[in-house]
Amino acid sequence: MQIYIIALGAIKDIDAMQELNNIPADIKLIKWKSLFQINCASIRKQIKESLFVHVQYYIKLDKIDEGEGCVKEISLLSSLCHRMFYMRGLINDARVQLRLAKQHYNDASLINPYHFPTCI
What we know:
There is one protein chain. The protein is mostly helical. It is built from 6 helices and no strands.
């Protein structure tokens, strides 16, 4: 069953390549650039999700400095991510810096008022 799906995907790719041969070069370049940007955005999102999971595990293992390192990496990928502010709040909670934790939780809720863990 999986071989059939892979073969079907390969046939679709061949058909797509044949269709691309009929498209002018400028449009091909734009199409490939947009596909590349979509793939980069998808990879960036997967990296962020992985880092979020790492932060939560580091906090549970009481490895706060490692968790903070992950949050810094997340901030390089997306500086205004509500989950990043939420994670900063968790880290400050673990360090018993409650005022700073509250500020980060408030920042997260300002960016996304529907983020459930922040609302609790």
